[in-house]
Amino acid sequence: RYETDAIYTSAGNVLIAVNPFKPMDAMYGEEQRAMYSVRHRGGSDDGTPPPHVFAVAARAYAEMTSKGKDQALIVGGESGAGKTETTKIAMRYLAGVAGTGRAAGSGDGSRTGVGVEERILRVNPILESFGNAKTGRNDNSSRFGKLIDIDFNVDGAMLGARIRTYLLEKSRVVAPTDGERSYHVFYRLCAGATTDERAELSVPRDPLEFEYLAKSGVVDVDGVDDERECDVLRDALHAVGIDALAQREIFRVVAAVLWLGNVEFVDRELDGEDDACSVAPGEGTKAASTAARLLGVRADALCDALCTRVMKLPGGERVTAKLRAERAEEGRDALAKAIYSALFDWLVARINASFADGGINAGKNGGDRTKRASISILDIYGFEFFEHNSFEQLCINYANERLQAQFNRHLFKLEKEEYEREGIDVGGVTFEDNQLCLDLIEQKPVGVLSLLDEQCAFPKATDKTFAGKLASEVKNPRFSADKRDAMRFTVSHYAGDVAYDAGGWLDKNKDELHPDLAAVVGDSDRSMTQALFAVMRKADDDAKTERQNSLNSRFKKAGKGKDTVAKRFKTQLASLVARLDECSPHFIRCVKPNAALVPGEFDHSLVLSQLRCCGVLEVVRIAKAGFPTRFARHEFAERFGFLLPPGDGHEGRHDRS
């Protein structure tokens, strides 16, 4: 099928989508959309359209409109398999068949001239610019997860949407891996800044002039014009109501993050103390001044907050402690990550606000504002295993384990229960339950994440003590400590064994921004920086509320109340799975046909391993062992009753009892 460009294949209720690594525009035109719409059922010889993303979206839309039940399109697969593109194709189909059919306003090119369905499609360049990056396996890898909830009214027209995001990979901002890039927006700003912007924001054309971007040594992506993509980004921001002035403020923050990376420190003797540092004169001072100007803060206040810490003693007295260069660099990176993460969250909030505003305006133009149901589309990072795997990979793979359990529960456990209720023998077909691996990661008190949180609560704990705790306390067949390297351990995931390096895990899990640095941001005289400070403060307040609500947990112990990335992510993941359980799920499994990401090559062993990892082979086994075609009795009678001969006393009628 792949050799003939038939990239979609059905396996029971699961659609397999093989990445063609080339444009396939002819598959997604108006004629194709009409073929899969609820009003047109033509297609293959037997009247059933061939497998397609449109078919899955059409089935979800039809079930949503007919039954009023929320639906979910769950798009899975490893990095480079095409999840993001598949998500966009599904969204385009839904926008085409269920658009509001009216712009929410005057049509003058402003935000009010763009209908909600168009806005939903236009957000992709924004999210991809700020949340995607080139990795070793994918030139446009999503470094965050997203769930898009699209609401529909009783007539099946779009009302609005909401985007929920999960676990942005903040470490990429300050330390992209060798051979990869940081987030696309950094390179697009360098390539596409106007002459005025270059002067005002101090943005060079060469991204390698910024230390954060020079670390990986990669600037270009094959086939991608960053200057043109910058123009696409500007248009997308405009479509969701972010005008040119606000865009300039966004780019000001992006440039400030890059200039922070150029702030260097030198250890020196200050006031008779050796344990101290200052901003390096020359280029370091220039970078600090530029970053401060862009953020609208005082340069001396920024430098002081980077090089010192104000500490409160038990008696209430405050003392200022000087930092060494290494600690100052950690604070600088923490500030850069916090600002960028807040900007990302601010953009998502603005996008969601534009959806809501568009729906209201559409209602004023005569649309029915009564919500009937919604369709959620999940596009989340695929299973990852690299030469070096860290805390981010464990979180990503944990999410995939949790989603795989949800997939198992729906397509295996529920199917088997249905057979058992019907008294049908399915031949003892079994599936791999990944509960052991989930217990290894999340179980209290000796799961990997629980032990990590415990270590983060102890001031003297280190990555080495954390690795030692894992080796001595974890008793799970899916876990093994490396006997040659005390910092490494292996987890046997459903998709294969992954070796992790525990270095840096405590700092990544704490994700701390010292109050001194946050206070500098809060004192800014620029409205955008103030808005980002409000985002940071809200996130901190939400974390405090969550901790307060969990005080009575039976697992609560003294010193363990501090918020961590692991705690937040577990909460987010539980909420995501609960949301998916409320919906009728439709699964799309994306497959990468070759590791080189080129068209026309089909690596059988690579494809087979992906099919096995994502559960498709078990779906086939279940279908083969049981009855793949099912009818309720009354449906069967309606369909085939005419084949019965006329019964006694019922001349000319069919006995359908």
Describe the model.
With 657 residues, this protein is an alpha+beta fold. The chain is built from 25 helices and 16 strands. A seven-stranded mixed sheet has the order 1-2-16-3-12-6-7, sandwiched between helices. A three-stranded antiparallel sheet has the order 13-14-15, covered by helices on one side. Helix 7 crosses helix 10. The longest helix is centred in the middle third of the chain and has 40 residues.
Question: Strand order within the widest sheet?
Answer: 1-2-16-3-12-6-7
Total helical elements: 25
Which residues sit in consecutive blocks of at least 5 with pLDDT less than 50? 39-46, 101-113, 359-366, 550-560
Helix % is 40-55%
Structural class: alpha+beta
The value of Rg in angstroms is 27 Å
Shape: globular
- Overall residue-averaged pLDDT value: 86
The percent range for strand residues is: 5-15%
Total count of strands: 16
What is the first-to-last residue Cα distance?
A: 43 Å
Quick one: biggest sheet? Answer: 7 strands, mixed
